[in-house]
Amino acid sequence: MKKLNCFDLDGTLTQHRSVLGKQNRAVLDALAKKYKLIIVGAGDAERIYRQTGCYPIDIIGNYGMQESRIVDGKFTLIRETLTHPDRAFFLKNFAYLREKYGYGTFRGETAEFHASGMVTFPLLGTKADIADKLAFDPTRERRRVIYPEVVDLFRDYAINRGYKFL
User: Fold this and answer.
1) How many CA atoms lie within 13 A of 54 on its CB side?
2) How does pLDDT run across 5-27, given as a tens digit for each residue?
3) Number of domains in the chain
4) Which residues on neighbouring strands pair with residue 112, listed in sequence order?
């Protein structure tokens, strides 16, 4: 018998960095009557919590580097693991990939370095418009082209493909 339901947020319960809608909130409410619910996401746990409209749900954020719970009705970060990636290594390799695959034009920064140690390589840049992100690669074919080389360049790291990575 199932006792736990886990959800992703961006691209599952919501569009990328969009607010949780009434319909999906109602689904969570119905499920919460019978099951324990949790969101497992790539983003910061507190950002995920705010994006849900402060929905009372446990969250595992930053690919498992954060854990939060609602304690006495308040968002509470109960575990956070921080690490520092080699920025020069990532920036050098991201520049190489942008040059080789034609992603030299982007908005904002070429990468995001998160306190958890997670590094994001947004092909459209850190300040790309949400509409551009959603329209960019709906079949993920563009990401698939460079994925084998990304895996090779970053073979000592866990690689996740998503809207923000690749």
Assistant:
1) 5
2) 888 888 788 887 789 999 999 99
3) 2
4) 120
If you write DSSP's letter for every residue of 44-99 in order, what string do you get?
Answer: -HHHHHHHTTS---EEEEGGGTEEEEEETTEEEEEEE------HHHHHHHHHHHHH
Residue 63 is classified by DSSP as G
Nearest Cα residue to 150 out of 135, 140, 165, 134: 165
Q: Write the pLDDT tens digit of every residue in 35-64.
A: 999 999 888 899 999 999 999 999 999 878
Is residue 163 in some structural domain? no
Last residue of a domain, one of 80, 102, 132: 80
pTM of the model: 0.68
**Residue 96 CB neighbours (<10 A):** 12
Confidence of residue 114 (pLDDT cuts 50, 70, 90): confident
In a domain, 161, yes or no: no
* 59 and 23 together in one domain: yes
Instruction: Write down which residue in 24, 55, 80 finishes a domain.
Output: 80
